[in-house]
Amino acid sequence: MADLQREEALAEHAHAPHQVSLAKTRQYLENLQQPLYPPPCFPTPTEELLVPPLNFALVVPGIYRSGHPNVKNHPFLLKLGIKTIM
Question: What does the record list as coiled-coil region(s) (predicted)?
Answer without folding.
Answer: none
